[in-house]
């Protein structure tokens, strides 16, 4: 799957490891949350970066105690209309202060890209044969926001309140 960062396709240095498959010791690897829970001790002393992939229903407090162990958190979107991942990403950033990469995986579409960034995601796995221009365009299509977010501390609603409009 192509990886989108800053509206363009980039090289993905991470490898997603299926449950039961060996985890490479010399390369950044993403394991499922279930595998992490079952094999946590086996990752002690690991030199290469580790990431965790969580299902859309996994809430931020479930992974919060181990956030310092993960350089990446991949949040699944089983359907584009399932918005739970947006809430999880925002909570990881705002409540738990997570500063690592947050990646959207699964069924995400360019129309959601701006909102992914506004809620704390840093990258997204795009579908195969995706049109890179549609992802880049998503960054410029909407330029005004009414709600506060992680990427814009001055939304229009606050500006209007200050100006008395």
Describe the structure in your own words:
By secondary structure, the chain is α/β, with parallel strands linked by helices. It has six helices and eight strands, in the order ββββαβαβαβαβαα. It has helices spanning 33-39, 60-63, 84-94, 113-118, 132-141, 156-163; strands at 3-5, 8-10, 15-16, 29-32, 50-54, 72-77, 101-106, 123-125. Strands 2-1-8-7-6-5-4-3 form an eight-stranded mixed sheet. The termini are far apart.
Radius of gyration: 17 Å
Query: What string gives the helices and strands in order?
Result: EEEEHEHEHEHEHH
Tell me the helix content.
25-40%
Catalogue the unreliable spans. none
Mean of pLDDT:
86
Major pleated sheet? 8 strands, mixed
Helix/sheet category:
alpha/beta
Shape: globular
Strand order in the largest sheet: 2-1-8-7-6-5-4-3
**Helix run count:** 6
Please give the alpha-carbon distance between the first and last residues.
Answer: 46 Å
The fraction of residues in strands falls at: 15-25%
